[in-house]
Design goal:
The protein has a four-stranded parallel sheet. With 138 residues, it is of the alpha/beta class. Strand 1, helix 3 and strand 2 form a beta-alpha-beta unit.
Length: 138
């Protein structure tokens, strides 16, 4: 096919490790204590994207907004018709928390594309939060 027919050369596929590295190079991730302090100071919204079975097994972070991963963009897009009341604007500092800090990095990339430029994620996810001795409710 020629270029005029609409076909273009695709980039070679990335492996997940390369994709995570690429995504994470675009922002600064934070440690559990920094996330806790930011949330306590009203400077950040913690968003737990873990699925229900993990929340039931391991508990919840008090005060965190629970939005499962498959709904995240719809709930946090400040311009969206299905947004959560907490989605107050594009300057909102969001800290996305998954179980171990992998899915959250990919979620942050998506939030950045929606204009939530201050979105970040928690290094090590919920498991790092718990290991740091930070509050967990059952």
């Amino acid at each position: 096919m020629t270029e005029s027919s609409g076909a273009s050369r695709a980039e070679p596929p990335l492996g997940i490790d390369e994709l995570l590295e690429q995504v994470r190079a675009g922002y600064r991730r934070i440690e559990p204590r920094e996330a806790y302090d930011a949330a306590q100071g009203g400077e950040a919204l913690l968003v737990d994207i873990r699925y229900a079975a993990l929340r039931e097994r391991d508990g919840l972070i008090p005060g965190a907004l629970v939005i499962e991963r498959n709904e995240l963009e719809w709930r946090l897009d400040p311009q969206g018709s299905h947004r959560s009341p907490e989605a107050t604007g594009h300057d909102l500092r969001v800290v996305v928390i998954c179980n171990e800090g992998y899915a959250s990095s990919l979620a942050v990339s998506s939030l950045h594309r929606l204009g939530l430029h201050r979105a970040t994620d928690l290094i090590g996810g919920f498991q790092a939060w718990k290991a740091a001795g930070l509050p967990v409710a059952s």
